[in-house]
Amino acid sequence: MATKTPQSQPAGMTDFAEGDVRIVTPDNPLVVNEDPANFGAVQIAGGEVIVQVKSTVTFASLEKTS
Question: How far apart are CA 44 and CA 13, in angstroms?
Answer without folding.
Answer: 23
